[in-house]
Amino acid sequence: MNSVKVSVIIPVINQGNHISACLESVLGQTLKDIEVIVVEGGSTDNTSDIILRFMDKDPRIKLINKSNEGLPMARKAGLNFAKGEYILHLDGDDTLEHDALELLYGKAQECDADMVVLNFIVNHAYNGMEKESASMRFVRLSGIDFIRTLYLRQNYWMIWSVLHKRSLYSNFKIKFDSNLFLGEDALLTTQLAYFSKKIVKLNSKPVLKHYIRKAPEEKRRCFSQKSYFDLITYPRLIEDFLKDKLEYPQLKECIASLRLQSIIKCFTYRCFDSAKDRSTEALQILNEHPSLKIIYGKRMLRFFKICSLNESLGRILCKFML
Predict the structure, then answer these.
(1) Residue 160 gets which letter from DSSP?
(2) Is the N or C terminus of the chain more exposed, i.e. has fewer CB atoms within 10 Å?
C-alpha cells in the first residue's frame, strides 16, 4: 500500500530569498505522509545550498537537478519521480497553512474526488496588499462543468490551486508543451479537469498564499514577443485538445471566452502587434457569442470597436480602459 498520500512538486530557479519559507510551510504540515520533490533548474544563487540543508534535516525531500527547460518540463520531471496518491504543484515562493494538506487530502478521501479546489490568498509583494480568492462556491462539478467555469471567469485555472490524483497522469495522455511559458497552467488544468469525473471544493479558510512580486509596470516592461506568442497560442492548444471530444460543441463559448481573455491580456501588457486584427477578432467573437458581452461589458466592446478602426487612438485609450 502506498504510504505517500501527497507529493508536492516545486520547480525552482533562483529562489534563494523565498525557498526556505516555502519548504518550511510544506515540511511543517500536520499531514506527515508526504514527499517534497524539488526540481532545481540551474540556479546561480544560493537556492541549491538551501535545499541541501533542508534535505539533511528531512528525508522526505527529493532533489532533481536539470537544465532549465521551462515550467512545464520541470513539473513533468517531478511527476516522473512522484509516488503520492495525490499531487500538489507549488511555485517556489508559495506557502501553505500548516493544515492545508490534511484538509485537502481529507476532503479528497471523503468525496473520492479526482480534484479538490482550494481557497487562497494572493499577496502583491510589491505593495503589500493581499486579496482572497473569490472563486465560486460549489459542492461538486463534473470535469466539463468545471472547465466551463474556468473560461467563463467563474473559477481559477492556476495549477497550484488544485489538489489532484496522480493517476490522472498515468491513466490518460496529459501533454506538456515545452515551448509554452505563459498559459501552461491553463493547458494543464484543462486536461486534468477533462479527465476528472468528480471535482469538489474545499470551502474553508484560505490554505495557500501565492505571491506576485512584479508590479504591473515591471511586467509590461518584461513582456516580449515570446510572451505575445504564448498568449495567442495557448487558447489554440486548448482548443486542439478539446476539438475531437464529444463535449466540444458545448464548450465553444468557453473557448471563445478564453481567446478573448488572451487578447485582453495582450493589450493589458501594452502589446499592440496586429492590434487592429486582434480587435476585429474580438468583435467577431462577441458577435458570435452575444452572452459574452454581458461578461466582458460595454467598456471592452467599446474599446475593441475603437481599436479596430483607429489603432493609435486604441493605444491611448488602453492606458485608461485596461
Answers:
(1) G
(2) N
- Please compute the mean of the pLDDT values over residues 188-193 and round it to a whole number: 97
| Cell numbers for 30 | 500536520
Q: Where are the domains of the chain?
A: 6-212, 216-321
* pTM recorded for the entire structure: 0.93
Q: For 135, which DSSP code? A: P
pLDDT of residue 1: 45
C-beta contacts of 172-175 below 8 A and 24+ residues apart: 175/241
> What's the mean per-residue pLDDT of the chain?
93
CA distance 16 to 44: 9
Query: What pLDDT sits at residue 158?
Result: 95
- The cell for 202 is 474545499
Q: How is domain 6-212 classified at the CATH fold level?
A: Spore Coat Polysaccharide Biosynthesis Protein SpsA; Chain A (3.90.550)
When pLDDT is averaged across residues 165-184 and rounded to a whole number, the result is: 93
- Taking CA atoms, 13 is separated from 62, 81, 89, 97, 103, in Å, by 16, 19, 15, 23, 29
